[in-house]
User: Which sequence fits this backbone?
């Protein structure tokens, strides 16, 4: 008797396309490299003694401190002397809120689990934080970095420190075992793009008086 035909999905597995092979290879490399770089994933890891410092860096890129700090700045900008920073503060608040929403939506859609070597002791998590893609800390680091460089007048050494902070926050996500490398890379691209969208759609300085009156 003739053999029954294989289901279509089994045929695809037996005859994978070039794109499928390439993506599977990249995924395997991503998982392997991320695990090798997770040197602070636990106390017994290669750089386990640096884990407390990495967790401090983790908190510095968390959304809650940035939202609370921005809201506090808005509450302190009710005087005429401080209204010059109102427009940038509202811009940063909108960007941070959009960042939280977009990261949560993408995580909920992709549902990529966190690395198996991750220790779930993160600072203030919600339901979608059990997923890995993309890195919210990386998106926030890129967004905050662009905002600071764009709206604050800083000396060159301080501008370099801001960029280094964004890079260190992003790298620490892999070192702590929280994310894979592709999670962080996509997060940086997403954060950069989100700030561009918010900056493009934001009110012009000509509309600022109405904004001040509303606030």
Assistant:
């Amino acid at each position: 008797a003739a053999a029954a035909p294989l289901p279509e999905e089994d045929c695809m597995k037996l005859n994978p396309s070039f794109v499928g092979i390439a993506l599977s290879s990249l995924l395997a490399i991503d998982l392997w490299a991320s695990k090798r770089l997770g040197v602070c994933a636990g106390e017994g890891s290669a750089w386990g003694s640096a884990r407390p410092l990495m967790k401090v860096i983790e908190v510095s890129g968390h959304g809650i401190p940035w939202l609370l700090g921005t809201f506090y700045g808005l509450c302190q900008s009710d005087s005429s002397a401080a209204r010059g920073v109102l427009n940038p503060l509202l811009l940063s608040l909108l960007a941070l809120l959009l960042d939280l929403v977009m990261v949560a939506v993408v995580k909920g859609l992709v549902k990529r689990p966190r690395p198996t070597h991750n220790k779930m002791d993160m600072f203030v998590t919600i339901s979608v934080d059990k997923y890995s893609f993309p890195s919210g800390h990386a998106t926030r680091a890129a967004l905050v970095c662009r905002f600071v460089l764009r709206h604050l007048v800083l000396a060159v050494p301080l501008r370099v420190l801001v960029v280094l902070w964004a890079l260190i926050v992003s790298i620490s996500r892999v070192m702590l075992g929280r994310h894979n490398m592709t999670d962080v890379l996509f997060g940086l691209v997403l954060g950069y793009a989100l700030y561009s969208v918010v900056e493009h759609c934001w009110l012009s300085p000509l509309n600022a008086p109405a904004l001040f009156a509303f606030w």
Remarks:
- DSSP finds nine helices and no strands in the chain.
